[in-house]
Specification:
The structure holds two protein chains of two kinds. By secondary structure, chain A is of the alpha/beta class. Chain A is built from 14 helices and twelve strands. In chain A, the strands form three sheets. A five-stranded antiparallel sheet of chain A has the order 2-3-4-5-6. Chain A has a five-stranded mixed sheet with strand order 10-9-8-11-12. The longest helix of chain B has 18 residues, at about 75-90. Chain B is globular, with a radius of gyration of 13 Å. The chains are: A alpha/beta, B mainly alpha.
């Protein structure tokens, strides 16, 4: 280990198959066999050929927030065998178990400058985007909706994401008295927020540009609720904005204003979308950003700042 | 491109046309070694279209590991990437 040191972010765990080296900060996992681990740790040599298994994968592609650790747990395949320890150290350095330069390593933890920037790990969303677009060659938008909604029922799937979002919405909407208030839910999707507004006494109008077949099914079911209906067709924006006591803009709509506007392109709701979506600023960090999105329903902390 | 081995100039011309389709003015003075990212000529969506274009036009399958800034950063870098991948294909045919 002349040129390398074990990364301070790595922890080792003994499992029946060997020793699992996990760098949770870089989200990389390598399983080492005992000859390799003992050589790495400077312990008594164990006879046998040093080998390792790369146990990292981008697990989030199989479910929203399914498992952010990126640890593979399926069957072990063929290991990578090393003719020399120098080869092994290079392999481990490529996977951030070993590092050469701490400053260089720390510099990796920054946002990506482009989709193909390999010099920075990037944010979670950047990593997901690169994985989906470049590796799996799927459209992230389609992936997102497939992950979020069950095509059979139109409901939000029972995954961790749903429960995190639900808890968040309940915290902010559950304390509001909306009796008799008219609320515009912009980007209503399956109506997760709309149902809470309704439960608090609000009269909710949902708008959603996509999910047309889904939206119809949901609006039909929602018809059983007293105060929910969905505007799917074009409406002039003043008609929509006038007469509402408050408006809620879904996080999906504000997260990517350009994409949102593209979805409303060519409809009469384009102008409305332009007014309601905005690029969050630094002081818009959650949860104040969220509060700002339920504009008119409670004091806007951004405007008081 | 019908022939199995496009020459370097044909590749560069095709790439230039592709980038120029969206931004003809910017491409007029573009040098083959100019950085497409720095010049704002390839954003994320255009980059994905470019990858699809390369694969369909030149009949090569690009690996995830090939898709780096170094390999896609300039017209000449993309040309080299295409040549590397098409010659690998030819060795097996």
């Amino acid at each position: 280990l002349v040129d390398y040191s074990i990364c301070a972010d790595v922890s080792f765990r003994v499992i029946p198959e060997g020793v699992l080296a996990s760098n949770y900060r870089a989200r990389q996992h390598v399983l080492l066999n005992l000859p390799l681990f003992n050589a790495l740790a400077g312990a008594d040599p164990v006879s046998g050929e040093p080998c390792a298994w790369d146990r990292t994968w981008f697990s989030n592609v199989d479910g929203l927030l399914a498992d952010p650790t990126c640890l593979r747990v399926d069957e072990l395949g063929e290991p990578t065998r090393f003719a020399t320890y120098e080869d092994a150290w290079r392999y481990l350095a490529d996977r951030f178990v070993l590092i050469q330069d701490t400053a260089e390593y720390d510099a990796l933890f920054a946002v990506k400058k482009s989709l193909v920037d390999r010099k920075h790990f990037g944010t979670f969303h950047q990593r997901l985007g690169a994985e989906l677009r470049l590796n799996r060659r799927v459209d992230p938008d389609e992936w997102w909706y497939a992950q979020k909604f069950d095509p059979e029922t139109g409901e939000v799937r029972d995954n961790l994401y749903k429960f995190v979002q639900q808890a968040f919405l309940e915290e902010y909407i559950g304390s509001l008295d909306l009796t008799g208030k008219r609320v515009l839910d912009f980007g209503c999707g399956a109506g997760m927020a709309a149902r809470l507004f309704t439960a608090q006494g609000g009269l909710v109008t949902g708008v959603d540009p996509e999910l047309a077949p889904l939206a119809h099914r949901i609006s039909h079911r929602m018809g059983s609720l007293d105060h929910f209906y969905m505007v799917n067709e074009a409406k002039r924006e003043f008609e929509l904005l006038d007469g509402f006591d408050g408006r809620y803009v879904s996080p999906e709509s504000t997260a990517s204003p350009r994409r949102t506007l593209n979805r409303y392109e060519g409809t009469e709701l384009r102008g409305l979308a332009d007014r309601l979506t905005y690029r969050p600023t630094e002081r818009d960090m959650p949860p104040s950003a969220f509060a700002a999105r339920i504009q008119g329903l409670q004091p806007d902390p951004c405007s008081r700042a | 491109m019908s022939s199995s081995s496009p020459n370097q100039d044909e590749i560069l011309a095709a790439l230039r046309d592709f980038v120029g389709a969206e931004k003809p003015d910017e491409v007029r003075d573009l040098q083959n070694d100019d950085n497409l990212f720095d010049l704002g000529l390839l954003d994320s969506l255009q980059l994905v279209s470019m990858v699809v274009f390369i694969e369909s036009e030149f009949g090569c399958a690009l690996d995830f590991d090939d898709l780096t800034e170094e390999n896609l950063g300039s017209l000449s870098a993309i040309r080299d990437l295409i040549l590397r991948n098409t010659s690998e294909v030819q060795e097996f045919t």
